[in-house]
THUMP domain-containing protein
Amino acid sequence: MAGNFKMMAKTLYGFETILAKELRDLGAGHVEEGVRNVTFEGDTGFMYKANLCLRTALKVFKPIKTFRVFNEKDLYRHIYDLDWPDIFDVEKTFAIDSIANTQVFDNSMFVSLKAKDAIVDKFRAVVRDRPNVQTQDPDIRINIHIYKNTCTVSLDSSGKSLHQRGYRILTNIAPINEVLAAGLLLQSGWDGETDFFDPMCGSGTFLIEAAMIACNIPVNINRESYAFMHWNDYDAKLHDKIVDASLKKVREFHHKVIGYDKAPSAVRKAQENVEHANLSDYITVERKDFFRADKPVEGKLHMLFNPPYGERLPIDMEIFYGKIGDTFKKVYQGTDAWLVTSNLEALKHIGLKTSKRIKTFNGKLEARLVKYEIYEGSKKAKNNN
């Protein structure tokens, strides 16, 4: 199709298949899974849509040149040859992110500096002026990836990581990354067909991401800017058209999203974040202790939460996780209970058999997303029905 080009979306470990499905559902072509990334094809409008709608993408890159590199002269020449003044205005600030897995260069910093020289020299030659480098929050982000002797230069269309949705204005001690939250929800099979519950909701990230999935709300609708808005070819009318079309696909949600937390400060933060995300009609946050409260709804319930795991919040693991297991058994019949933890030893104290275990990472910590199916009555009785 005319106007289509190759792109690459970066994601977290284990989310490649989910991201590939998201891309196909949005209408991407030639979708291929990589390691922590998925490549695909689409036009400029699709690039805007990918940034707006992808729940499990951290960045969307637009490759603009691939070449062979054997020394620093090759690197400089090929980058200089690109028509940088045609890509962005000299008044814009820029930064370069480099990854060099090669014997050609000692470190990525040298690659970034050499590329910066080539870009600045090109501007000086063409417009007799140069753009300024700004490492913190630049207008333009350029990505350089070298593997062995192959160098790919890409424009970072997202700018700030796409986990920065724009709705979370307040956080707690150990907030979960929004992309991680969305990916875990999708891995748990959350589809908005039942009530949802986070019994230790913190600042409300799972609640907000769950409601957005249930309502099919574009996940970055609250975000104000992307790096592609600073490119010379940015089409504001097309972008507005993409946003309007995506909002028309929002659907009604006929169940409840409920959050508990025993800390008044967490409840207040979660409520403010929910309000800022314009989701107060769908989400209820209450100050309650999971271990002392009743099940919030009758019937089927989808639970997902991120309990403390001792890394930043000191607790007695054996007692705490034992109480989680006891509460599951006593109160939460008819619940698909999912939790994510980096304390793999603590899971042993829950005292229930997991029906699913999925490896993931919470930051740099290896973690597990685990499922406990809490049946109505005994499992034996269920199987005899």
